[in-house]
Q: What sequence folds into this?
């Protein structure tokens, strides 16, 4: 595929700082409080001070209160010459970074802060507090005015049920099995066990038998096919690449990025009218057209693992294998670091490290480029980070300088 | 420390549609136990859910058309976690996406009168009606002989 000559922002930005809070099922802290910790740690990691930050790129989906005003008034950041916001569940997080890269590449800002903070751990969600009373899909009103009226009254209302329907059809069309789903769960847990900051590492590794014995949530998906829920925040600083080279940490250069959205990414009730096979294939085509690094050069992948089958679909969407071959690709420990064919989510991912709406994948991708991962892939000079194929989505490539 | 009680707790009853300008005809037909969908007079495609114009050709000539009420299961899940209290007595609950006999048009639907282990992709189904309230009847699906 020829390089897209209209994409002129290759290597113009870099991640120069990362930060995070602890990850837990209950921290008893507001999202603003956790965001502040992660943001200030990322700024310090970059060798900067809060007054050096002149832009913000963030993520607005779901209950969240960190507006620009909060960042000024309550954290002490200030004077942004660039600000941007993405919506959409797990599909947006890659676009938060690509938008920040555009911000610095265009000359609108020098250092853009990007973050995500969530108080969605089990202990925070189920209880009497102000934001509690269940997860968003458990807090529907008695009368539904939106698209939910075409599926909620029939008993289909949570992401796991939606993804279960997609997984069932995926198995039917391509012969993918739950044994393939288990490959993803086992690999990410193995990585979490090596990562002392992960939530699930302390539970130890899981076997294929543990996977089969875990309870059904929505067939064909079991408990161990599902991501965890977390209190925690992560943040990164995206800087102009020329400035990054003079900063203390080894830069993770943002080489290329792409976005994709189309009707097949939208609501449950309408998904099926459009070509589901296409999913995010267009995202992969666009990303590689914008990139001089190719799929064969990628040393590790950070994919949105809200549910195990979606990792296999993402491998297909992004061109690591053909449609329907994601299951076969995952065999023989291929996804396991540090020496698998393509280590995936070497921190434990959303399944076993923490669920920060994908944002913790970015921090780990940067650690791999720096050489700091607890499951470090040898000579890791190029990685891919991708958001959920099931929503408006995006992906980017980080490289060493 | 315990914070004050939440006003956001889950609703005890099954959430129901609140018909609006773009879809009240659909729910009115359902109330009469009739399954009507819009069909674009120009491109002849059927559409669900209801909408003011055809997204393929932007025609507003969307004709309400009675459907046979027959279809097949295109995909499905067996929900073991009820999510809402209203479904607690119904799990394990089979719910799927029904491909209607008229063509490339799909509806999310609950599957009735079938054991969860007997549901399969391609299974022939027909519509059956559940009167959920005074003003809302919901199209559910049950097995039919093919």
A:
């Amino acid at each position: 595929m020829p390089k897209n000559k209209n994409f002129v922002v290759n290597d113009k930005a870099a991640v120069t700082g990362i930060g995070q809070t602890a990850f837990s099922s209950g921290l008893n802290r507001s999202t603003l409080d956790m965001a502040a910790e992660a943001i200030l740690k990322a700024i310090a990691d970059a060798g900067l001070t809060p007054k050096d930050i002149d832009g913000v790129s963030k993520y607005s989906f779901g209950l969240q209160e960190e507006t620009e005003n909060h960042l000024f008034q309550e954290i002490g950041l200030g004077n942004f010459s660039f600000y941007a916001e993405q919506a959409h569940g797990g599909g947006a997080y890659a676009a938060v970074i690509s938008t920040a890269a555009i911000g610095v590449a265009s000359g609108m800002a020098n250092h853009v802060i990007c973050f995500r903070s969530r108080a969605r751990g089990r202990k925070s969600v189920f209880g009497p507090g102000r934001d509690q009373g269940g997860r968003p899909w458990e807090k529907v009103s008695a009368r539904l005015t939106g698209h939910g009226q075409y599926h909620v009254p029939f008993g289909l209302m949570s992401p796991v049920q939606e993804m279960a329907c997609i997984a069932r059809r995926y198995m039917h069309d391509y012969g993918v099995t739950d044994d393939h789903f288990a490959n993803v769960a086992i690999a990410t847990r193995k990585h979490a066990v090596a990562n002392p900051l992960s939530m699930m590492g302390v539970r130890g590794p899981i076997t294929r038998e543990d996977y089969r014995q875990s309870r059904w949530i929505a067939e064909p998906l079991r408990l161990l096919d599902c991501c965890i829920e977390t209190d925690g925040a992560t943040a990164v600083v995206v800087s102009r690449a020329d400035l990054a080279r003079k900063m203390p940490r080894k830069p993770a250069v943002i080489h290329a990025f792409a976005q994709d959205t189309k009707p097949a990414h939208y609501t449950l009730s309408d998904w099926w009218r459009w070509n589901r096979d296409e999913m995010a294939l267009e995202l992969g085509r666009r990303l590689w057209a914008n990139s001089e690094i190719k799929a064969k050069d990628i040393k590790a992948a950070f994919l949105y693992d809200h549910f195990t089958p979606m990792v296999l679909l993402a491998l297909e969407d992004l061109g690591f294998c053909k449609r329907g071959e994601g299951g076969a690709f995952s065999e023989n420990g291929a996804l396991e670091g540090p020496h698998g064919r393509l280590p995936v989510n070497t921190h434990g991912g959303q399944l076993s490290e923490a669920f920060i709406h994908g944002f913790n994948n970015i921090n780990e991708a940067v650690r791999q480029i720096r050489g700091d991962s607890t499951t470090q892939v040898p000579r890791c000079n190029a990685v891919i980070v991708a958001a959920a194929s099931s929503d408006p989505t995006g992906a980017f490539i980080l490289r060493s300088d | 420390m315990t914070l004050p009680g939440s006003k956001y707790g889950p609703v005890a009853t099954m959430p129901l549609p609140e018909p609006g300008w773009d879809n009240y005809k659909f729910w009115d037909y359902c109330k009469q136990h009739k399954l009507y969908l819009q069909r674009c007079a120009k491109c002849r495609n059927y559409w669900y859910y209801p909408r003011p114009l055809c997204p393929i050709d932007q025609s507003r000539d969307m004709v309400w058309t009675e459907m046979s009420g027959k279809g097949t299961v295109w995909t499905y899940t067996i929900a073991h976690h009820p999510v809402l209290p209203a479904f607690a007595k119904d799990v394990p609950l089979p719910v799927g996406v029904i491909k209607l006999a008229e063509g490339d048009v799909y509806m999310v639907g609950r599957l009735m009168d079938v054991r969860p282990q007997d549901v399969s992709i391609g299974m022939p189904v027909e519509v059956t009606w559940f009167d959920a309230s005074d003003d809302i009847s919901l199209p559910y699906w049950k097995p039919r002989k093919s």
User: Anything to note?
Assistant: Chain A has one domain: 13-123+231-400. Residues 8 and 376 of chain A are 31 Å apart (CA to CA). The mean pLDDT of chain A is 92. The first helix of chain A runs from residue 31 to 45.
